[in-house]
Design goal:
Shape: globular
Structural class: alpha/beta
Distance between the termini: 47 Å
Strand content: 25-35%
Low-confidence stretches: none
Mean pLDDT: 94
Strand order of the largest sheet: 6-1-2-5-4-3-7
């Protein structure tokens, strides 16, 4: 069995979004899970976040950064091409999907997405939004050109965009915006989910 690419978008110079025809995965996926992609007979196993899923269309969205041999190869594929293996959903879903909706509504939640960390954050805040909960999201990037999924996240959350160089949105690291929201804008959070570069997650935890 092969899995057809039904949509492809270039989000910036090094990041692509693809919708893959995979009805079984789309039917079973939960926010926070991932899949393993094997492009062809000689391909290596590539773990990628499930960035979105659509049961009706039978599609799963992946977002990936072109860094090594396999991701470069995947980036060269076009709509109509197929992938050999698309295995999933794998991993533990986000813990909050097992909580009662009433309990979740009483929690103030913030998600912090750095770079391609926007991809795993999106299905989580989308799920919350579908259940009547609007979380805050800080979307951080080095520059304006590197910001991804801004429109999508903006539709399902209270979104704050920040760039390290100040070229778009708020200026500075995500931690600066988080500190501003709590210290200067009267925000309070019970839960913080941070996904992005290791150094970003470290400083969010320290804060």
């Amino acid at each position: 069995m092969s899995y057809k690419i039904v949509e492809k978008k270039k989000l910036n110079d090094v990041v692509y979004l693809m919708d893959i025809e995979a009805p079984r995965v789309a039917h079973s996926a939960k926010p926070g899970q991932f899949i393993i992609v094997i492009i062809d007979e000689k391909g290596e196993r590539m773990p990628l976040t499930i960035a979105d899923y659509d049961e009706e269309r039978g599609t799963v969205t992946i977002v990936f950064q072109v860094v090594g041999f396999s991701s470069k190869k995947l980036g060269k594929l076009e709509v109509g091409d197929s992938i050999k293996d698309f295995v999933g959903p794998l991993g533990q879903p986000s813990e909050f999907i097992y909580e009662s909706i009433d309990e979740l509504k009483n929690k103030k939640m913030i998600f912090i997405a750095g770079g391609v960390g926007a991809a795993p954050v999106y299905p989580q805040v989308k799920w919350l939004h579908e259940h009547g909960i609007t979380a805050d999201v800080i979307l951080g990037s080095k520059t304006k050109d590197m910001v991804i999924l801004e429109k999508e996240l903006g539709e399902v959350s209270n979104l704050y965009v920040t760039t390290d160089d100040g070229s778009y949105g708020r200026s500075g690291m995500v931690t600066k915006t988080l500190e501003d929201l709590v210290t200067n804008e009267g925000k309070h959070y019970d839960v913080c989910v941070a996904i992005g570069p290791m150094i970003m997650m470290k400083f969010v935890c320290l804060l």
